[in-house]
Amino acid sequence: MLEADNLECVRGERRLFAGLGFQLAPGELLYLQGRNGSGKTSLLRMLIGLLPPEAGEIRWKGHKIGSEDFRADLCYLGHLNAIKEELTPLENLLAAARLADEELSEDDAFDALEQVGLAGREDLACKYLSQGQKRRVALARLVKEKRPLWVLDEPFVALDVAAVDWLAGIISAHLQRGG
Can you tell me the distance from the alpha carbon of 103 to that of 100, in angstroms, rounded to the nearest whole number? Predict the structure, then answer.
């Protein structure tokens, strides 16, 4: 379970939010909406331990976040794609798996890229892909992802209708598995 208690976020001289709290049980989803600059990304960065809250506490499975167990359960995809433009989608996906210390065979990587609609573009440098295709490369990590806690920042940005439907299905399946 992910819990936030009495969180406060101050950026510069501006308080973005205070007194924020929630509990998410397995199979539940928190969907953040708000205007630009309202603190959505700041909250997500707090939830993964990249930004300390001004006040309050965040717990995962009853313990303060930051432990090795927490990081082992976390999959974070930021609003930037975190791909290398010079590498191909296949190379990016395999490198991301290695960096996360996860097993991913080349066959599984090809399958993930096919599922996100990049079949035939696996060996093309990412710098030649559209913004939506680059986002799909980043999201391909979710196809084989087994970590229970997914924190996704603006996951639907630059996606066409088919990709939005695919991603909604992947998220729904993850929730049904107790993620």
Answer: 9
* pTM score: 0.92
Give whole-number Cα distances, 107 to 53, 90, 151, in Å.
Answer: 41, 10, 26
> E-strand spans in 45-175?
55-60, 63-64, 74-77, 149-152
Cross-strand pairs, 77: 152
Amino acid at 62: G
Question: Count of CB atoms within 10 A of residue 13's CB?
Answer: 5
Helix or strand (DSSP H, E) at 42: helix 40-47
The per-residue pLDDT for range 42-78, each reduced to its tens digit, is 999 999 999 999 999 999 999 999 888 999 999 999 9
Q: How far is the C-alpha of 17 from the C-alpha of 11, rounded, in Å? A: 10
